[in-house]
Amino acid sequence: MKRIFVNEEWCLGCHLCEYNCAFANSGMKNMALALKGKKIFPKIHVYGNDKINFAVSCRHCEDPLCVKACISGALHIKDGRVCIDKTKCVGCYSCIMVCPYGSLSVGETGVASKCELCLDNACGSPACVKGCPNNAIVYEER
Amino acid sequence: MKQYVIIGNGIAAAGCIEGIRKTDNDTPITVISGEKYPVYCRPLISYYLQGKTALEKMDYRNKTFYADNGCNVIYGKTAEKIDPEDHTVLLSDGKNIPYTKLLVAAGSSPFVPHFDGIETVEKKFSFMTLDDTLSLEKAICKNSKVLIIGAGLIGLKCAEGLKDRVGKITVCDLAKNVLSSILDDDTAPAVQAHLEQNGIEFFMSDSVKSFDGNVALMQSGKQVDFDVLVTAVGVRPNTALISGIGGEVNRGIVVDTKMQTSVPDIYAAGDCSEGYDLSVDKNRVLALLPNAYMGGFTAGVNMAGGNKEFDNAIPMNSIGFMEIHIMTAGNYIAEKDGGTVFCKKTENDIRKFFVKEDELKGYILVGNVLGGGIYTYLIREKIPISTLDFENLQNDPNFFAFSEEIRRKKFGGVV
Amino acid sequence: MALLFYPEFEVIRNENRCIACRVCERQCANEVHSFDSQTGRMIADETKCVNCQRCVSLCPTRALKIVKSNCNFKENANWQDDTIKEIYKQANSGGVLLSSMGNPKPFPVYWDKILINASQVTNPSIDPLREPMETKVFLGKKPNHIERDKDGKLKFDLSPQLELSMPIMFSAMSYGSISYNAHKSLATAAEELGICYNTGEGGLHEDFYVYGKNTIVQVASGRFGVHEDYLKAGAAVEIKMGQGAKPGIGGHLPGAKIVADVSRTRMIPEGSDAISPAPHHDIYSIEDLRQLVYSLKEATEYKKPIIVKVAAVHNIAAIASGIARSGADIIAIDGFRGGTGAAPTRIRDNVGIPVELALAAVDKRLRDEGIRNNVSLVVGGSIRSASDVVKAIALGADACYIATAALLALGCHLCRTCQSGKCNWGIATQKPELVKRLNPEIGKKHLVNLMTAWRHEIKELMGGMGINSIEALKGNRLMLRGIGMTEKELEILGISHAGE
């Protein structure tokens, strides 16, 4: 299965991935309309300092702890992807408690939020990868 | 005929079914479910009261879960007795079910202590099952005054669930602190204060001495008027099935890291079991949903002839009450045991870390819990703290505090 | 108080589009953009803007554009805006004005006044998609006539040759003036394309010895980074006598750019200025040059062709004639529009001549003297497209050097402030956080794409002329016509006017 991998050697810490993620998952057609004046809730986060940066999003583990820890059955595996049914999530954050990568975050509505590889939104493949100016984030089989 | 039998139909049972099907796709599975519902998410009952979820959203798995996994579920019957010689389970309706491998995932039962005059209380409930919840829901109205005995996870979750649906909520507990099983003196008062701001009344270090109809006389001499009583003092693992046949039982049914009991071909998982707890390096009952699933899953794999160990269970809780979030894991014994405790308090945030012998042993986060899984990972994998920028990590849990090599390994390949 | 003037560029931010993502702020090494937390809006300090367009390129909502300021001084055809500003700058600083990249002044570009022929009716054109088409060239001394042994078989005692899959090479840019990642992009692309790149006067980083067969190693007046292994590592050795952007002067790489790796590669102390003298202090005549040529041939056991690179200056034909007799195998001529990492503005903009004229003059002179086969000719200094290459070959070149075009493919936006060392595109900088902006995988891909595209175009242009081998185009000036040129210009270029 294709997954997202990051290479900090090329990450510029520009944070474009976060904005591309938020836009891709906004359901809107124009980024400015989608994001202007709003706090964004991306599913990928860039960490680091002024020299070293790296982006973290869901690793789509083969044996995902978050799915096992989910108390509501909201997290599930769909064709190898770890997906979330937001209508089932109650925001207990057990997934955040067990994710060893710190990949999950909290969405706008207070329930857990995670990368689903953009396969179900209009982008069709990870928006963070498409928009990365330096190929620091790639989407491939490894 | 070969068949797996699972006593219980909770999260451990679901884990077991999925564990079995990882290795064995054919052998039938029979599930004995005392409750009349497919596996649902018990911790959601308070969210149901709160209106954050609906009955149809509480199923743990989708509607075709049992059919897809070749399971036959017997609803509304309980297992009365196991015959380990014959490999059969006697049901409450007198039927015998044969098993090849058996999982006991019988869960736990609420512990209700005796109070004088309790028989005079008209509306009294436990808060464990969906049926408890539905009965409680029928008994309350907008003006109800609810008394909850027990300020633990169940009691406070119940309080949160009821908060906007009743007139007044009073919580009492013999312990000094709320959530005494997961919080300490540094953190509990903040949580209690937050709940008090949200209108919950507390009687701590106090409990009911006796009841007289709708009045509770407290040990302190105070009186509490109420019309609905919820007892959430604690739970007891259901161990009788195994103790009845001479299997090893302590507080819970004793299992090894493969989730096997002392009785051949019988496994146990979930709230009824007592398995290995990495954080204290001995067996303990860890009645937590993630552990129930992982224990059940491990048992399932092993029952089907696979080989899996569950040797990194630790206590952990992630729970929110009225917009304040709490995440805890591991143990806090470092505090008394020559370890180091790091505690950072800000206006909305408490972060406490228990370190001993260069390892993180436990943590408590109140407020901001994002990235907490990285701390859990440190505990479970026993990562030497000295290899990290731990100072930085305490405020900001992310992999910047780790070495470049670890980051490359973690983010550069399939995990 | 310093003489002040309105900034050259204005940052135009479309507030309806700006989402304050702060990418512009994070990406601008010149610190033009900043976030104002009070208003939640982005603000800009235009005085620092160099119009490199990094922010424009990365802005996800296309909220930004950089425009040339229209706040001008009173109109004056003689004292134009730039002239006045330069005066102010010098009045403030007392220093020589510095510039980068090629001469931007509106001098004639002869490539644009030359038209290429095509076959019609009387001789067939060739479809490169259907028929084989050869773009391979060999650079080096060629025999004047074929020799056979007594059995009638051809004698093959050729001088060393540089084999290129197409008549283009990446010209000299030193490690130091450009980044490690830029060098790696050039080296890996050259390898994949089967052409050569050139180290410039910066030595060869130890990581790049593996690309030796696609590397031209340069020996310049500073002799930085030159040692035996270096000379032997390359496919050819180039003696740099001059550079088109700054003929007659040396180079100066500031100590700030001599970081650890650069210092090791150049074999000079970290932080010390790398000053290349104007002349080679051991070369004052063709005879001296001959000594260096042969020293290098000795050092490389006569296995590598020696290139002598000179700037196109007034008496270039005579100079080339001398070089062709010095033992050099290849002459590289760099025209006055060639780029640089830093040059005094007055020199860049006023010294030297166009390479088109230099090439035509040199090729003619060498033919007239019967020594054209002594050397191959490589020309550079603003070769911008496949048609420029075709025209250069038809004027008599064996191959072309490109550098500015290659940098553009790597992301350069020709802001011409390489000298600042703060290249936002990760090319002309040694700052690690900027260098990493150029991922050599991407750089290589863009270079390979560009050269592949040019190769297709060269084949199409050749096919149109009914020529199926680049060798058959070389010096074939009948394929060219001039347009809008004077008699003298046509005479120097050796071509007829369009319509003739």
What does this structure look like?
The complex is a heterotrimer of chains A (142), B (415) and C (500). Chain A has 142 residues and is of the alpha+beta class. Chain A is 20% helix and 20% strand. Chain A has five helices and eight strands, in the order βααββαββαββαβ. Chain A has helices at 16-24, 31-35, 65-69, 94-98, 127-131, and strands at 3-6, 45-48, 53-56, 75-78, 81-84, 105-106, 112-113, 137-140. Chain B has 415 residues and is an alpha/beta fold. In chain B, helix 5 (153-162) links the parallel strand 10 (145-149) and strand 11 (168-173). Chain B folds into three domains: 4-42 and 58-109 and 236-303, FAD/NAD(P)-binding domain; 118-233, FAD/NAD(P)-binding domain (3-Layer(bba) Sandwich); 325-411, Enolase-like, domain 1 (2-Layer Sandwich). By secondary structure, chain C is of the alpha/beta class. Chain C has two domains: 9-72, Alpha-Beta Plaits (2-Layer Sandwich), CATH 3.30.70.20; 137-497, Aldolase class I (TIM Barrel), CATH 3.20.20.70. Chain C has 16 helices and 21 strands. Chain C has helices at 23-27, 54-58, 81-93, 180-193, 228-233, 260-266, 286-299, 316-324, 345-350, 355-368, 386-395, 404-410, 432-435, 440-464, 470-473, 487-493; strands at residues 9-13, 33-36, 41-44, 64-68, 98-99, 114-116, 137-139, 162-164, 168-170, 197-198, 215-219, 236-240, 251-253, 274-276, 306-311, 330-334, 343-344, 376-380, 399-402, 480-482, 496-497. Chain C has an eight-stranded parallel beta sheet. A three-stranded mixed beta sheet of chain C has the order 6-20-21. In chain C, helix 4 (180-193) crosses helix 14, helix 8 crosses helix 10 and helix 11 packs across helix 14. In chain C, 50% of the residues are buried. The mean pLDDT of chain C is 95. Chain A binds chain B through residues 3, 5-8, 45, 47-49, 52, 54, 56, 59, 61-62, 65, 68-69, 71-73, 87-88, 90-102, 104-106, 142, and chain B through 15, 41, 43-44, 47, 52-53, 57-61, 289-290, 293-294, 297, 316-320, 325, 327, 329, 369-374, 376-377, 381, 396-400, 404, 407-408, 410-415.
